[in-house]
């Protein structure tokens, strides 16, 4: 809002972020199965980076290591450099001269792009990026990301891509649960016939 965005845009973006983190939490809870104090600490470390690092691994031990390493590392460094900025910010000059406004975008691209598999997911990502860039000069701050979310939702609603295209690797957090329920790892995917690739493997 300090950059000129409206209250509605801020609340909408915050709602999307909350929904996203809720989905992250459900996925990671099923994938890592934390117990005791780890469940409560892990909830505080559930962010984009820790989720992407964890779900990007196929080995369960590496999934746990990736989550805790990314979550704790970002928590410590984020707060450390926030303190540095607060204490020495005047000496750093204008942050825009350092190009830091593009650091977050670069980080998200680094997390997402290597995991895209197939032409349709790549095309959707490119279309959403173009829609965001086009919207920036015409709408208040915070609204372009909402435009991208709407574009992705519309494409996803009307799209009928192949079931084996999406994010790579394809990790099924409920794989062990399916095994215990009779050894059948496949599950139906949104009404389409077939099973999710990699499930029950």
UniProtKB/TrEMBL annotation:
Source domain of life: Bacteria
Compositionally biased region (Basic and acidic residues): 182-192
Record-linked InterPro entries: Brnchd-chn_aa_trnsp_permease
GO biological process, one term: L-valine transmembrane transport
Compartments where found: Cell membrane
Pfam families per record: AzlC
Region annotation (Disordered) ranges: 168-201
Record-level GO cellular component terms: plasma membrane
Keywords: Cell membrane, Membrane, Transmembrane, Transmembrane helix, Transport
The protein, known as: AzlC family protein
Species the sequence originates in: Arthrobacter nitrophenolicus
